[in-house]
Structure formats: structure tokens, C-alpha cells
Inverse folding.
């Protein structure tokens, strides 16, 4: 028994040391990427007509770069699933500069994409590279999860949510308990590092003053159903559109050119620049009492699905936050519910339903909106999560591993 304790102790110390290294490295790269993205967004927002008309040309550059320099890097998150569930031995290191460059370019010219995909891939590459130097397959998987968690935490600065996010999306219904502690350590280090390097965290104190009578409960049920269905719509719509475009526009250059031109026209003529980029403008308006249109969420959803399906790089999570927050605001105003609380519930519930992640969503609510909000948001997240029918924006990668 004493030998077992010594082995566990040594293993814990070893993983903790590597987690510290991974967290520091990933947090630094996340800060560089995140601050660069904010700078690019400011430039585009200041001069939208200088950039939005040329989104298709930017797309051609992205496709050319991946075709000629990316090799397997264009698989993106697929590489992460292969490494975690199929024992893939390498994730190309070139993935990091390629995904950062292509995401910056996508955002500069207005593609409606996120950023978490970049952060998770950065962290996974760094973690897997360190793990590849070890003989133990267990260590390789633990460090992959550790890197993924650090990537998410360094960008969003929600370390507990990041830990569960990495485990939930990679392990397909299974929790690798041995990865929990190193992932948590790396997440806190990455979050602290990126914050020290000037990357700010979004947070909002939610007013939880809500009179829970029968009518209010019925309204909340309606709201939760809407969140779950919209999250599922996003996940299934994205899967359908990717397959449809691959079938109808199999040439990646033609696909991104045609869809890029369509997106440019929409982004210019439908509320200039409102639906471009991350969607943080919609999030800010939702929580600061600025006007939100009842159709903002659906247009953001459509622009995001089209942008990602066409081949623009980034991610889905921040647009999902924007979709959920703007939908929550619209429903709150319609049903006479507290706007801040319902916008916060939408923020995490649509994310939960679209990603099929439950615990990560709960901790996002706690770390972004305060732990006092969880008792109100938890039931809505739970209903939304149940309604998603196992749909997920990451389902394609997981299904490919099961073939």
C-alpha cells in the first residue's frame, strides 16, 4: 500500500509540474492571439467598408495557405479527436501559426466565427507535443486534455469550466478523473498568465431577484425549451450545411469564394458589421440595456453557420454565447422576465445544447455571472442540455472516430 501511495504521489507531482509548464506556455500564446484578435476587431469595426467587401478574397488566401502549407493541419479539431481517442502520435506544430493567422484574417474581413477552436487547438498541440516525448499512453492523453483545458482557460479565463469542457468534448461521455487535477492546474496558470499579459475577462453580475410563482415557472420552461431547440438547431444546421457544401461545392476555392461573396453582401447591407466577427457586440448590448432586435440571434446563427461551413477559421463558442444572450434578451422582454438573468441563462444554455457539454456550462455560469446565479440558471441549462438529443458541434469528429 505504501508503494502505491508513493507511485501516486510521484505521478501527481510529475503531472503538476508539466501542467505548470503547459499553463504558462499556453497562457502566453493565448494572450498574444487574443490581444491580436481584439486589435484586428477594432480596426475592422472602425472601417468596415475597407474590409467586408473582400471577405471572399481573404477566404481564398486561407484555403491556399492550408492547401500548400497546412498538410493535415486543415483537419483542425479532427486531429485533436484522433490524438485523444485513436492514439494519433503527432499533431503538426505548424497547426498553431496556421490557425492563428487564418483566424486573424477571417476576423479582419468580417467572417462570423469565434476563437475557442483556436485556443483549444493551440493548447492541445502544446500538451500533445510534451506528451509525445513520454512512453506512457495515459500520460499522453492526460497532457492532451491538460493542454486543451489550458487553451480554453487562457482565452476565456474560466478555469473550472475549461477543465470540464476539455474532458467533456474529448472523452464522449466518459470522465478521465486522472486528468482533472493537472487540467485544473494548467487552466488556472493559463488564465492567470493571459490576464497578467493584458487579456481581459468578460464578467457580469446578474440580478437574481425573481419571484418564483406558477406563471414565472411556466415562462422559464418556455425559455429553456427555446434555448435547447436553438442550440440543437445550431449543431444540426452546422452539420447539415458542412455536408451540403461539400457535396454541392466540393472545390474548396469555389466554395469559399461563392459563400464569401454572399456573406460580404449580407454583412454590408444588413445592419453594417453587426453580425461580423465574434458577436461580442451583441453580448455587450444584451447585458448593457442597448437595443436588441428580435431577429439578431437567428441572423447571427445563419452568418456563423455559413462562415464556418465555407471554410473560414475560428470557432463557434463566442458566437453561441452571442446567439444565446441576444435570444435570452428578446425572450425576457417578450415575457416580462429579468433581462440580465435570462440573457445569462441563454448565454450558457445555448452553448450547452450546441456542444453537448453540461458541467462546463454550469461552471461558465458561475465564473462569468457569479455563483449566486447558478441556482436560477441550472434548471434552464439542464432542460436545454436534455433537449439537444446528443447533437453537438463536435459530433462529426467523434463520429469519425467510431467508424
Amino acid at each position: 500500500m505504501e508503494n502505491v501511495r508513493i507511485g501516486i504521489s510521484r505521478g501527481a507531482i510529475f503531472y503538476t509540474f508539466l501542467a505548470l509548464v503547459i499553463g504558462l506556455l499556453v497562457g502566453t500564446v493565448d494572450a498574444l492571439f487574443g490581444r491580436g484578435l481584439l486589435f484586428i476587431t477594432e480596426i475592422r469595426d472602425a472601417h468596415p467598408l475597407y474590409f467586408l467587401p473582400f471577405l471572399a478574397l481573404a477566404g481564398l488566401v486561407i484555403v491556399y495557405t492550408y492547401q500548400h502549407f497546412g498538410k493535415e493541419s486543415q483537419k483542425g479539431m479532427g486531429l485533436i479527436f484522433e490524438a485523444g481517442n485513436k492514439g494519433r502520435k503527432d499533431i503538426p506544430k505548424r497547426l498553431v501559426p496556421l490557425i492563428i493567422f487564418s483566424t486573424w484574417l477571417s476576423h479582419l474581413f468580417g467572417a462570423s466565427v469565434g476563437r475557442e477552436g483556436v485556443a483549444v487547438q493551440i493548447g492541445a498541440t502544446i500538451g500533445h507535443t510534451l506528451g509525445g516525448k513520454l512512453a506512457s499512453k495515459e500520460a499522453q492523453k492526460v497532457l492532451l486534455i491538460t493542454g486543451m483545458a489550458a487553451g480554453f482557460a487562457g482565452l476565456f479565463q474560466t478555469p473550472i469550466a475549461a477543465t470540464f469542457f476539455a474532458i467533456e468534448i474529448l472523452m464522449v461521455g466518459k470522465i478521465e478523473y486522472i486528468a482533472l487535477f493537472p487540467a485544473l492546474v494548467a487552466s488556472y496558470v493559463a488564465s492567470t498568465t493571459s490576464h497578467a499579459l493584458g487579456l481581459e475577462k468578460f464578467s457580469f453580475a446578474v440580478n437574481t431577484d425573481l419571484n418564483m410563482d406558477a406563471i414565472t415557472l411556466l415562462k422559464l420552461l418556455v425559455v429553456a425549451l427555446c434555448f435547447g431547440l436553438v442550440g440543437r438547431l445550431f449543431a444540426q444546421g452546422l452539420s447539415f450545411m458542412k455536408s451540403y457544401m461539400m457535396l454541392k461545392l466540393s472545390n474548396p476555392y469555389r466554395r469559399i469564394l461563392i459563400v464569401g461573396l454572399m456573406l460580404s453582401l449580407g454583412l454590408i447591407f444588413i445592419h453594417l458589421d453587426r453580425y461580423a466577427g465574434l458577436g461580442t457586440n451583441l453580448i455587450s448590448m444584451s447585458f448593457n440595456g442597448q437595443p436588441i432586435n428580435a431577429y439578431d440571434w437567428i441572423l447571427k446563427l445563419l452568418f456563423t453557420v455559413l462562415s464556418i461551413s465555407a471554410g473560414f477559421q475560428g470557432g463557434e463558442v463566442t458566437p453561441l454565447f452571442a446567439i444565446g444572450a441576444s435570444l435570452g434578451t428578446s425572450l425576457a422582454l417578450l415575457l416580462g422576465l429579468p433581462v440580465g438573468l435570462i440573457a445569462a441563462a441563454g448565454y450558457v444554455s445555448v452553448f450547452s445544447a450546441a456542444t453537448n457539454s453540461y458541467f462546463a456550462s454550469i461552471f461558465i455560469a458561475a465564473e462569468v455571472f457569479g455563483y449566486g446565479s447558478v441556482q436560477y440558471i441550472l434548471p434552464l441549462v439542464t432542460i436545454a442540455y436534455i433537449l439537444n438529443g446528443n447533437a453537438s458541434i463536435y459530433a462529426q469528429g467523434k463520429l469519425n472516430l467510431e467508424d
